[in-house]
Amino acid sequence: MNPRAPVVKLTTLDLDHETLPRYAPAGVGAGASPTVTEDADWRNDVDFATSTIRSHQQAPGFWLTAHTVTPRFENPKKEMNTYVTAIMVDLLDPIASVSGLADGLARARRNLTDQIESTGLVRYHGRPDGPTIPALGCVITPDSDDTALVWRIAPSGRPDLMSRAIATFEQYRTQEGLYHTWLAPRSDYSCIDAGADPNPTDVGIQMHIYQLLAMKKPSAARALCGVLNRSIADDRIWVYYAVAPLVPLLRQADLRQAGCPLRVPETRVAAAATGQEDWIATARLLDGLRSPEGPRPSPQTTEILLRKLAGDHFSLVRRSPPLLYHNDFTGKVPRFYWSEDFGYALWLRLYFENARQRGRKG
Predict the structure, then answer these.
(1) 20-68+78-357 carries CATH number 1.20.1740
(2) Could you tell me the pTM of the whole model?
(3) Is 149 exposed, middle or buried (0-12, 13-18, 19+ CB in 10 A)?
(4) Interstrand relation of 64-68 and 336-338 (parallel, antiparallel or unpaired)
(5) Lowest mean pLDDT among 22-31, 107-116, 175-184, 276-285
(6) Cα–Cα distance, 216 to 71 (Å, whole number)
(7) At residue 296, what are phi and psi to the nearest 5 degrees?
(8) Cα distance between residue 23 and residue 281, in whole Å
């Protein structure tokens, strides 16, 4: 959720031999088979990515997010939101110890927990009394997406507040079983650029609510999984990820592990904004490495892409970082949201997952 524009959110696609070459890094032939490099050859790249993530993390624990007015990374401005910090923690947590980022993730979690209000709800730009308001955000209406993310990733010690949050979700559930974005009547909206549907049921939001419900309310999670599978190809739920399918692609493996096998349609992947091809390829490879079933990508294929992304001190990450989400295209103010830090985090996650698959310690 961002100032003057609703939010967007996440999944991952299964990898197969026919799909992979289509998303191979540009300039690398599908038949290329370079020698697999040793871990020592990657040390500088790993250190660069981790040190950059550390240096970009702000003192309170959050990472800033860049936003532009077009789907090109030009003239970005910065904001603070709870969403990007939450997905950074989610992505890096499985490699926290081996990457040396555990302390930073603990600080990020504390910051996220602090955003939970007395209602049990969370706002995209954090608490209304937060120090980043209004310089890096605005007092925005609480939403179901950030509330679900924070309660799963960084819950408070007040389970009664979580119960209140989940009860509020139910008040904003459609007849078909999907959940709305904003947790307030429209008359109480604040800092929202409402589109044709003032309270949409976005695909990424359903994924994040499912993950929380799978932990706290399994029967409701099963019902949501069924509805989401039936709705996944419906354009109407691709509000905040219409041209930014990266997060839904990454979430695909998370939902699968939580008991909801889901496949992002290829038409949604094909709609990705220009310049996101390497990030889509990274998501596919990571999903393939996390899949309990084959075929899994070869170490050589994975390392080709890792090397490309890390080239020239990760210049590609700075020039064309991951596009994570955008606002509702039927609203008045176009906004596209990017994160260089998420690019470094995604590179690290793929590197260590690949190392683990090869039986290396990373």
Answers:
(1) no
(2) 0.89
(3) buried
(4) antiparallel
(5) 22-31
(6) 37
(7) -100, 150
(8) 5
